[in-house]
Design a protein that fits this description.
With 222 residues, the chain is α/β, with parallel strands linked by helices. The chain contains eight helices and nine strands.
Length: 222
């Protein structure tokens, strides 16, 4: 029996020959991404685990984007603390306030590749499924553990296949497609499920359009 994309990627990441939905695996993380509002929380979680250095500076990406430029003294302090921490950790992948939104910066700078595991401290990390990655968001404590070890535990998800055929009419956008899909699936119909998009419509869709589909997948429950 064939395997889903999620099962194949998580098998590689966990060192298993194969995985199946429902199985708990410890997966190696290829990219750990943190926006400004969650970076310090994750760093503090890592330190509470007794770890001072990230497992691999080249695989950690921090992007100052949610409050950019800093609009309050507190936001400015957060940005300053992140810059100091990034220098201490020898992080090359710190993208400052002029760089853009994290989910655009990550692929634009070449951090996302097909078949990789991308974990972000942001719920819309699923955006990067558009590039054939297994991408999901986690909380700051889980991200702290990833910073410390380079691994995270995951339950291999069930997969929902969404088949979209035909040519989109004028003024019908990928956003309209995903709103229709979300309306049918429901706000919690895909909780802890992976979603695979298939069909002629998807094949002919631009990369930015596919990013829109994947970005909004979290609105169906993640």
């Amino acid at each position: 029996m064939g395997k889903t994309i999620a099962e194949k990627i998580l098998a590689r990441a966990s060192g298993h020959e194969e995985t199946s939905a429902g199985e708990i695996v410890k997966a190696r993380v290829d990219v750990a991404m943190m926006p400004d509002l969650t970076t310090i929380l994750a760093v503090n979680a890592m330190k509470e685990m007794g770890v001072d250095r990230v497992w691999d500076p080249e695989k950690v990406v921090t992007i100052l984007d949610h409050v950019a430029p800093a609009s309050t003294p507190m936001a400015a302090k957060i940005h300053r603390d992140i810059r100091i921490w990034a220098r201490e950790q020898n992080l090359e992948n710190l993208y400052d306030v002029e760089s853009g939104v994290c989910h655009q910066v990550l692929p634009e700078k070449g951090h996302v590749k097909p078949g990789t595991v991308v974990i972000g401290a942001d719920s819309h990390t699923c955006t990067h499924g558009a590039f054939g990655a297994f991408a999901t968001g986690v909380g700051s404590t889980d991200m702290g553990a990833i910073l410390a070890t380079g691994k995270t535990w995951l339950r291999v998800p069930e997969t929902i296949r969404v088949q979209v055929e035909g040519k989109l009419q004028d003024l019908v956008l990928p956003k309209d497609v995903i709103l229709r899909v979300a309306g049918e699936v429901g706000a919690d119909g895909a909780t802890y499920n992976a979603i695979e998009f298939h069909g002629e419509t998807i094949s002919e869709m631009s990369v930015s359009g596919r990013m829109t589909l994947c970005n909004m997948a979290i609105e169906m429950g993640g």
